[in-house]
Here is the input.
Amino acid sequence: MMKRTFYALAVVCFMVGSVVNAQSKQPDWKAVEEETMEHFQAILRMNTSDPPGIEAPVVDYLKSVLQKEGIEVQTFALDPNRPNLVARLKGTGKKRPLLIMAHTDVVNVDSTKWTYPPFSATRKDGYVYGRGSVDDKDNVATGLMVMLLLKRSNAMLDRDVIFLAEAGEEGNVKYGIDYMVKNHWPAIEAEYCFAEGGGVPRTGGKIQYATVATTEKIPRGAKLVAKGISGHGSVPLQSNAVVHIAQAVAKVAAWQTPMRLNETTTAFFKRLAEISTPEETARFQALLNGKNADSAQEYLATKEPRYYSTLRTSISPTIIKGGYRSNVIPSEAEATLDIRALPDEDMPKFLDAMRQVINDPAVDIVSNSSSARPGSPPSKLNTEAFRAVEASVKRTYNTVTLPTMLTGATDMSYLRSKGVQCYGIGPMTDSEDGPKGFGAHSDQERILEEALHKFLRFQWDVVSSLAMQSSPE
Ligand SMILES: [Zn+2]
Here is the structure.
């Protein structure tokens, strides 16, 4: 037994020594790739479907890997099954900390729909299949590896580097980021943070650009409630609540809410215009200078709904309810609106404008105050961190960086509201993959192995350029 343990130790030491070449500060990438894949598959195989979440096994795994290398780890839990992990590498304190963030939970699966079982982490033809492979266990694995590589490099750091693996991102933030920000802020307080939300889209095998999320829209759901007089269906009534709600929904859907660009979306369309076809360029310039913006918007509304959504606070009616039998006119009917607000939207003013559009005293707007994700200004583009990201994008992918506003919500909104400059990054994906059903949240979620490894190199490049001391003292 002793002999065996000694042998195992020797192997570990050999690996540690070979994985970071202290002189060049460049890791031995071949060995790193094997190690990354091992951790990635191990984490993918843990079922952290949320609800119920149960992220503890992933946290235990990360904790043991990090501690084995002498990295300081703390865990914080509102529910013992759903802990958050914080690891920290100490710097000199010359600069404020850098936070790397990744969520350990995944969305639920319908396992009958999967060709390869969702928690098998099957490797096939250069891909790894599994729930969480691009959302967000790729970031968990690369965040872990960046910490290990930094530690092994023995480099002096100008700032602390913190790794947060948080629970509950897929709909139960009270166990995760909300809990950490409200109760353990000093453990994760940072100047900059990196998390999911960006990516490097490839079309026909060719890299288009890299997106870096610098802001996101805020969910601000609301309900429309129509009230009328109930009665017998054989006698049509002007006050019929079903009719009033239907008219209100139609008006809201047809309403072109005001278009407004911010620093992020301005930069996005400007840079996109520089790499697009002449026809597309004209369209993006129309948005930027306001001339012929209407026809450009009309085009985007039908052909590029995602771009269109980034131009404004948007409304999607998603649920209509009313009535319970065919011969009864109900006294009430309601509609649910998924409203995604621009980060600086004045919601009371916006809802007032919507009330005027509906223009019907029988219809009330009830705003959903429980959707209280904080709004905050976009993260800045003129920071050391954004410049480092752009430079690493160029070095790693040889392409341009487009700052983007996400239409969906991420945990970064909590940090931005505390003044942290957050940048959403992500691996290379093929744009053909999504429509074929291989994207995030799909039944065949997968990642290219090559994309995972490249993403780690990119993250390592960004973090080391921001944290490592540029010249020895
Ligand atoms: Zn995610």
